């Protein structure tokens, strides 16, 4: 009897931000294949008998190549197991979930995709930065900080195409990204925020401008994971953060 695979988004970091459906599937899983940024408290939600397999990736350090992950999911499902592929954020936002779904469907394995709260939206919000605001930003784009296979991102195409840019997986290329955005039309004094470990107790935000954000992030000693926000909405952070703190004090 063929089992099934659920591609479950674990959310942006805080384990409480997983969806109800995702948690339901996790609690009934036979096998959990999880990413590096998944909070360990979520793994505790799986049944004691469930097999837990680490398949995390960091820049230049992959515990398991993607084709091997695809094959692993197929193998466990063909053994009749209920598999949860637990992925940080949302499975289909730079999570290679589409590749896994394609491999599973090609093998005849039933697949359910459970959307997750993407860090691209949740982390700026947690840091007090709205991605849109009437009169300030009516559009935003989510961009990877590095191209597929290390190929460069076409910053000329996206630099001024939208009001707000959200860059994921970009800390290692922060200086180059800032210089490319300036070279392709973004003002050097455009506000930028770099948010580390967003939505968690370790959240830290460094704010600057395109012209100096690399130095500020380096001085702060920021490490991955980070979300980079570029645009005038970053300037609203102080107002909205102050309002949130005032509400919390009441």
Please specify the SSE layout and strand pairing:
Layout: E1 4-9, H1 20-26, E2 31-34, H2 40-43, E3 51-54, E4 57-58, E5 61-62, H3 66-78, E6 82-87, H4 97-106, E7 111-114, H5 119-126, E8 140-144, H6 155-158, E9 164-168, H7 174-183, E10 191-196, E11 204-209, H8 213-220, E12 226-230, H9 237-249
Parallel strand pairs: 1-6, 1-7, 2-3, 2-6, 8-9
Antiparallel strand pairs: 4-5, 9-12, 10-11, 10-12
Residue windows where pLDDT falls under 50 for at least 5 positions: none
CATH class of the largest domain: Alpha Beta
Q: H/E order of the elements? A: EHEHEEEHEHEHEHEHEEHEH
Q: Note the quaternary state here.
A: single chain
Radius of gyration: 19 Å
Strand proportion, as a percent range, falls in: 15-25%
What is the CATH architecture term of the largest domain?
2-Layer Sandwich
Number of strands: 12
Number of distinct helices: 9
Distance between the termini: 57 Å
By secondary-structure content and strand pairing, the structural class works out as alpha/beta
Integer count of domains: 2
The order of strands across the largest sheet is 3-2-6-1-7
Shape: elongated
Whole-number mean pLDDT: 92
- What is the helix fraction of residues, given as a range? 25-40%
Tell me the name of the CATH homologous superfamily of the largest domain. Tetrapyrrole methylase, C-terminal domain
Report the biggest beta sheet as strand number plus sense, adding barrel if it closes.
5 strands, parallel
């Amino acid at each position: 009897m063929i089992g099934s695979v659920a591609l479950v988004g674990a959310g942006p970091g805080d384990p409480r931000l997983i969806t109800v459906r995702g948690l339901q599937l996790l609690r009934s899983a036979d096998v959990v294949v999880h990413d590096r940024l998944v909070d360990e408290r979520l793994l505790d939600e799986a049944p004691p008998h469930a097999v837990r397999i680490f398949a995390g990736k960091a820049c230049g350090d992959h515990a398991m190549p993607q084709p091997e992950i695809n094959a692993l999911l197929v193998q466990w499902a063909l053994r009749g197991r209920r598999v949860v592929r637990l992925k940080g954020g949302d499975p289909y936002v730079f999570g290679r979930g589409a590749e896994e779904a394609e491999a599973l469907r090609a093998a005849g394995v039933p697949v359910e995709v459970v959307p997750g709260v993407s860090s691209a939206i949740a982390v700026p919000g947690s840091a007090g930065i709205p991605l849109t605001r009437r009169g300030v930003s009516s559009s935003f784009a989510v961009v990877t900080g590095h191209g597929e296979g290390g190929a460069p991102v076409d910053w000329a195409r996206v630099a001024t195409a939208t009001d707000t840019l959200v860059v994921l997986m970009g800390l290692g290329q922060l200086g180059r990204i800032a210089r490319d955005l300036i070279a392709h039309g973004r003002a050097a004094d455009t506000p930028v925020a770099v948010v580390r470990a967003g939505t968690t107790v370790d959240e830290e935000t460094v704010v600057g401008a395109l012209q100096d954000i690399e130095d500020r992030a380096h001085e702060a000693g920021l490490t991955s994971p980070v979300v980079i926000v570029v645009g005038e909405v970053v300037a609203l952070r102080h107002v909205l953060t102050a309002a949130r703190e005032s509400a919390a004090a009441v």
